[in-house]
Amino acid sequence: LDADNYETDPCLKEIRRAENYSWMDIVTIHKDKLPNYEEKIKTFYEEHLHLDDEIRYILDGSGYFDVRDKDDKWIRISMEKGDMITLPAGIYHRFTLDENNYVKAMRLFVGEPVWTAYNRPADDFPARKQYMKFLAEEAQ
């Protein structure tokens, strides 16, 4: 995606239309830009899940999303300017900055945003059970 022209990027516009991403905002994660920076960084790095998909589009900077594979082992995903990721509801994950300690990201949602993170263990939520069912089906 064209992060330098995200406001007019036709590819982003089409993704938002196709996926019904009707709400968005932009967050800058940097010690000079984010209130309660140290606390927020620790919260982002706590292993958790959400009941809705988590969609992030990196407009500047870089960082890592860590996700659990089907064997419950970590996979690190490097994210940089122009990258977009969708983490499905129910997947355990965490986020951390890299050595640059800076990322500017667009957060996208279907409908109103839901910010609630459920720290592990959170296996009883329907979203988690649905995600685990999806993994089992993919393994067959």
CATH superfamily, by name, is Jelly Rolls
By CATH, the architecture is named Sandwich
State the total count of DSSP E strands: 8
Distance between the termini: 33 Å
- Output the structural class: alpha+beta
Radius of gyration: 15 Å
Number of domains: 1
> How much strand content do the residues show?
35-45%
What global shape is seen? globular
The CATH class turns out to be Mainly Beta
Helix content: 10-25%
The whole-number mean of residue pLDDT values reads 97
Give the H and E element order.
HEHEEEEEEEH
Low-confidence stretches: none
Count of helix runs: 3
Query: Main beta sheet: strand number and arrangement?
Result: 6 strands, antiparallel
CATH fold field value: Jelly Rolls
Oligomer: single chain
Short description:
This protein has 140 residues and is an alpha+beta fold. It has three helices and eight strands; from the N terminus they run H-E-H-E-E-E-E-E-E-E-H. It is globular, with a radius of gyration of 15 Å.
